[in-house]
Amino acid sequence: MILDVGCGDAPRGDVNVDLFINQTPHIWRPHVIDAKKIPNFMRADAEHLPFRDGMFETVYCCDLIEHFVNPTKCFLELWRVSKRTVLIWVPCNIWSVFFDFVFRGRAGWVRKYHKRQFTTKSLLKIIPFNPVRNAMVTVKLKYVAFADAVLWQKANYESKLKVPVPFKIEMTVKKIGD
User: Where are the domains of the chain?
Assistant: First the structure.
């Protein structure tokens, strides 16, 4: 089974968890999350998940841990409920610089809601050695075309600019030697 923590309005799991329903979590998505439309939805805090240890084969977490003051605490909770794999996606830190430049500081929501900004190296630092010593960790950048990254929220546009830019950082942590 797959657990999607911080599912928002785009659930990917067999069980989907989010804390912020009936609220607008970001300016990019100015609509609220309708929990009734999300299959197998539970309202829960990612730092205190109401599941037993190792309950889910995979725990998926996209665009969430950057919102925590202590992302290690969140990671350890994801790790606890995972039987095998934790997959984390975070925005690439270049986007906060880009939005500040484009909006000339009006994009203060990045600093307001994103408590942390990550690079591939800094994302690795949220994983404590103990109890995560028997794990294989991979971190990689995901690239998209520049215009696709900037206009991703707009529908039905034709992108002419195909310059690849880093968009997301993907970290996979797999348990080994159980």
Answer: 2-92+112-143+168-175
Provide the whole-model pTM. 0.78
Give SS3 for 162: coil
The CATH superfamily assigned to 2-92+112-143+168-175 is Vaccinia Virus protein VP39 (3.40.50.150)
The alpha carbon torsion through 26, 29, 30, 35 (nearest 10 deg) reads -90
Write out pLDDT tens, residues 49-108.
Answer: 999 999 999 999 988 888 888 999 999 999 999 999 999 988 877 666 666 666 555 555
Q: Can you list the alpha helix ranges (DSSP code H) found in the chain?
A: 71-81, 94-103, 109-113, 120-124, 146-150
Question: How do residues 131-158 score in pLDDT, each as one tens digit?
Answer: 677 788 888 877 665 555 454 444 444 5
Q: Cα–Cα–Cα angle for 27, 28, 34, nearest 5°? A: 85
Q: 41-71 as b/e, with b when 16 or more CB fall inside 10 Å? A: bbebebeebebeeeebebbbbbbbbbbbeeb
